[in-house]
Amino acid sequence: MILLFHDSLGSVEQWRDFPEKLAAQTGLTTIAYDRLGFGRSDAHPGLLGKDFVFSEAEVGVSAVRETFEMNRMILAGHSVGGGMSIATAAAFPGVTSAVITMAAQAFIEDRTLNGIIAAKNVFNQPGQIDRLVRYHGDKARWVLDAWTETWLSPIFANWNLDDALRRVQCPILAISGDRDEYCSLAQVQRIAAMAKGPTTIEVIEDCGHVVQREKPDTVLNIITTFISRLDLAVANI
């Protein structure tokens, strides 16, 4: 099975038809879910903590695994969801066959912070929050603040995935757009440098942050090729 993690403003609906196409092209069951506080899930009871990426692996993924009886997983995520796929692989090494990150942040850099500040200014304009209400309903303001105020907080300034990456021994596919407004190529390079397992880096030309929406066919082909090279017979996915 492939388990998909959405981004900081994301939801199942915002993946559009990507999960269906990914399942059809790879031949693997693909599951996307709304994290607590997002999409059609219940409202989050509070604020996100500094460890929210890691706690999702321990709490959210555990519930999903139990529900769908996931004995083996390929973990794939966009943006912070890519970070969650890495954290989950570190937490569940025995059941993780591979990790796929799309425009994931492995550490805090100026481009990330500047991009968030710019986006926050846009969403503060009249009517812009309605773009999130469409997917998150009355949770939209919480979703926005959970992204901007968490990532821009001084206590988050030294956040990184280094420790988790050191515990990931399965193959990793790290995808990045060359025009990503939130992540430089230093992010995928950091993933490759810190991970214990083999990492394949793919940089998509003329592509921004939302790679699966901007270049869907390219991303699907890259992922399909990567998965085809895994020993799925041994992985028992």
Can you lay out the helices and strands and say which pair or pack?
Elements: E1 2-5, H1 18-26, E2 30-32, H2 52-68, E3 73-78, H3 80-91, E4 96-102, H4 110-123, H5 130-136, H6 140-151, H7 162-165, E5 172-177, H8 186-194, E6 199-204, H9 211-214, H10 216-228, H11 232-235
Parallel strand pairs: 1-2, 1-3, 3-4, 4-5, 5-6
Helix pairs in contact: 1-10, 2-3, 4-6, 5-6
Separation of termini? 6 Å
The side-by-side strand order for the widest beta sheet comes to: 2-1-3-4-5-6
Mean pLDDT: 96
Instruction: Return the structural class.
Output: alpha/beta
| CATH class group | Alpha Beta
Radius of gyration: 17 Å
The CATH homologous superfamily: Alpha/Beta hydrolase fold, catalytic domain
The CATH topology label is Rossmann fold
Q: Helix fraction?
A: 40-55%
- Strand segment count: 6
| Oligomerization state | single chain
- Taken in chain order, the helices and strands follow as EHEHEHEHHHHEHEHHH
- Beta fraction: 5-15%
CATH architecture verdict: 3-Layer(aba) Sandwich
* Main beta sheet: 6 strands, parallel
Total individual domains: 1
The tally of helices reads: 11
- Choose one word for the global shape: globular
